[in-house]
Amino acid sequence: MPLKTLVHIATIICAVTQFTACGFFDESSKKKEEAIARVYDKYLYKSDLAGVGSGATTPEDSIQAVRNYIDSWVRHNLMLRYAQDNLPDEEKRLNDRLRDYKESLLIYAYENELVTQKLDTVVSDAAIEKYYSENKDVFKLKQDIAKVRYIVLPLTESVKLDSVRVWMKSPNDFNRPKLLGFCKDHAARYMVSDSIWYNKDDLSSFLPVNRFNLASALNSNSYLEVADSGYGYVMKFDGYGMKGEDAPQDYIRNEIVSIIINQRKIEFMTRIRKSIYDDALKNGEFEVYIDEGIKPGKP
Prior knowledge:
Layout: H1 3-16, H2 24-30, E1 35-39, E2 42-45, H3 59-86, H4 88-118, H5 125-134, E3 145-154, H6 162-169, H7 176-186, E4 189-199, H8 200-206, H9 214-220, E5 223-227, E6 231-241, H10 253-282
Antiparallel strand pairs: 1-2, 3-4, 3-6, 5-6
Helix pairs in contact: 1-4, 5-10
């Protein structure tokens, strides 16, 4: 594991359990200092005040900041002591929770580092196709979707659309660069390189769907030109999917990739955990002291 990762993990654990082993050496060295405050058996030392009052504008303000800090420290630790004395069971539960959290955090950091270093996150088209074919029934559309290319043109500029209509209706490798050039020069917004799937809410955010029959456009793969008060819209619908139908593979491609990678992660960590257990068992690195007649969980 990289040194940087180990340092990061150690820092997190130390912060979570500051009152345990990570603070032992600091406390030992502080005992050589002169204490400036005490609450029962807990002491505040000069080094604990490092930086306190450093942002004050006058020496008087700096002194007052230190006094405020000391007073706050005293009050805090008095309340802490009373809480510890009056809620001993709660303190034990809190310590148990912090211990569990520390251990879970360490395990999570280690597993995450293993996954980052070792897990194959490249998902081939064949793997996506296979998963889609085997699980098609799971991926049903929750709403209507449309595959559309579009150009949004400001009405303040007069442009000829004769060639644009041809390029939008029949795109090919020859005219696509010309269409892109036109869009860069004249469009306020556009998406013409590839058809992308959008749901109705998406379409409503950048197309005036109230100015044409969306259902009709979807069903007929229409080419449309409409305008509102500020813009003209050139649209070519290239496909559609209705709510309840199987979702197109390219519409849920990213979702499938995430599912496949997550499955790999689960399988990978299952193998790692089993390997750790089997190796420890083989090498005698753990033992379970329990009589066969005693059921787990009972004294």
